[in-house]
Design goal:
199 residues; mainly beta; Porin; eight-stranded antiparallel barrel; 8 strands; OMP/PagP_B-barrel; Outer membrane protein beta-barrel domain-containing protein
Amino acid sequence: MKRMIIALTSATALTAGATAATAGNISEPVVEMAPAPVVVAPVPMGNDWTGFYAGASLGYAEASEDDETVFDGDGATYGVHAGYDYDFGSFVLGGELEISAFDVSDNDIDVDSVARAKLRAGYDAGAFLPYLTVGAAQLNTGGALDGDDTGSFYGVGMDYMMSDSIRVGGEILQHDFDDFEDAVNLDATTASLRVSFQF
């Protein structure tokens, strides 16, 4: 009986020792830390519109005098322009010179061309530049009303920057030529599509 008790005691001690040894060998779970979040700098909203540009336009015009009995015509326009814009951040200010040929005739009166000196003020909306424009215009006519005279214009436009060097856009202008050649009051509305190369 003593031998059985000693054997059981020894077996219990060995089992407890083995369990303790095994328990001591169990490694603690490894906790992997999540990677730190990467902070991405915000992309700036505006493009830099500062610089010289030059290009061409194609459009449509309607021209008439006050009571539309002497002259009332419409037709195509095409021209060239060059200018400079300065980007102040969200505000863009610039100037432009443009000359447009007209294919507009009525009652043996031809609208030949309009030359414009423009002031442009716009908002830098990233790749888009909506703007207002105002300035002086010189109208040249031929046929029964042959001459040239200076008036004014105002309008709105939009440029889109396709790349660092190419802009596309559109423009709508209203022209007023009061007492043109001391004969009639003429006005003209033009709408044009434009492409420009920025330097």
